[in-house]
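Look over both lines before class:
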Amino acid sequence: MNQILTQLSVLAEPFNIIRHPTELLDIILVAGLFYGIYSLINQTRAVRILYGIFILAIIGILGRSFELTLLNSVMRWMLTSIAVAIPVVFQPELRQALEKVGRSTNFVTDLRNFSRKELDQFIVELVTAVKYLLKHRYGALVVISRGSGLREYIESGQLLNATVSAKLIQTLFNPKSPLHDGAIIIEGNQIAA
């Protein structure tokens, strides 16, 4: 371990930014932590709220830099309010993030990861179902997720996690079916809800 740390310090010497190799490790770990937090909230409504908090932080920094007394007082009050509100507002996202950290697999599959044959089969099944629905005049809203924040809608609906098939889609949109709903959400090649 010491040999690795010595080699890292030799590599960092020309830049004179990092005085000790553990500082490099510290920077990498903190960057990884921030990236992990961002990737957890990236697909939720929390990211928009976080952008708002980020803007307030910039305003607070400017207020402190220019010694704006009233603005600093207001920002201190807002900081206290935000610190209390964050666990309340983000309760569902915090719960989901902790669950996601506990799971090791990535739930969302991207269509770009499919083979050409799988993609063709997916399209055939979807088009066949849509033609059937059109013929029978059944209304349908088919949402194909591309990594946007749909997790809260998926979890509020009837979870399926079933492979996309024309028959299943036809059944889901049949008004006489017990699982009849106005919409389905597709993630990868799975009907999530």
Q: What stands out?
A: The CA atoms of residues 4 and 21 lie 9 Å apart. Residues 104-109 have pLDDT under 50 and may be disordered.
